[in-house]
Amino acid sequence: MALGPLERGSDGFWGLGDRERNPSGRHVVLLPEGLEQRHDGVRQVMVPWSRFMTIHAVGPRFEGRHRIGPVVRATLRDPYEVWEARFTRHAHRYRTAHVLLLDELFVQTAEAKETARLGDPDWLAAVVERLAPQSPWTRKALRSAVAEAREA
Fold first, then answer.
1. What residues have CB less than 8 Å from 139, skipping those under 6 apart?
2. The domain containing residue 55 runs over which residues?
3. Could you tell me if 12 and 121 are in contact, meaning their C-beta atoms sit under 8 angstroms apart?
4. Which of 11, 66, 109, 139 has the most CB atoms in a 10 Å sphere around its CB?
5. Residue 66: which region, alpha, beta or left (left: phi > 0; alpha: psi -120 to 50)?
6. Contact 57, 16 (CB under 8 A)
7. Nearest to 43 by CA among 64, 15, 71
8. Quick count: other Cβ atoms within 10 Å of Cβ 91?
9. What is the DSSP secondary-structure string of 93-137?
10. What is the pLDDT of residues 94-140, one digit of tens each?
11. Are 16 and 128 in contact (CB under 8 A)?
């Protein structure tokens, strides 16, 4: 079960990036205590959930002519800063609806000041299970689908 780049790993925790096929690549793990960025299998940064003000899952982007891989972008508090964590893409393509649903899930959870819920593997599994089969194509339907999945 997955929602775009978000997949549950063999360790039971959810993460962004291809942790199973490419453990030496960059990936982000959603742990109960916070978001952990790893590279080459080594923890690079651990950001506690209490620091997150906003959080977005951003697909690949371009800076000039250079393609930058997918990232998680957040605004953190204490001290205030913009934080980014890149992650390695999976070999398969992500469904557009899944990428949009994932971003909306992050946005709504941060707006509700409930980012710590993203570190709860069981809660996240239930939300992903509800969202994965959906394909909302309007902003209103997208927001509604995520709100219903978060509260069920």
1. none
2. 2-151
3. yes
4. 109
5. beta
6. yes
7. 15
8. 8
9. PPPHHHHHHHHHHHHHHHHTT-GGGGG-HHHHHHHHHHHTT----
10. 899 999 999 999 999 999 999 999 999 999 999 999 999 999 989 99
11. no
Distance of CA 82 to the CA centre of its chain: 16
Residue 71 pLDDT more than 90? no
CA distance 101 to 143: 8
- DSSP per-residue letters across 18-86: -TTT-TTSEEEEEETTEEEEEETTEEEEEEEGGGEEEEEEE--EEETTEEE--EEEEEETTTTEEEEEE
Per the CB < 8 A criterion, the answer to whether 75 and 82 are in contact is yes
CA distances from 11 to 59, 107, 125 (A): 25, 26, 14
The answer to whether 56 and 107 have CB atoms below 8 angstroms apart is yes
Q: Looking at the 3D structure of the chain, how many domains does it have?
A: 1
Instruction: Note the pLDDT of residue 68.
Output: 72
Q: Which element (helix H / strand E) includes 129?
A: helix 121-131
Both tokens of 27, joined, read 């990936």
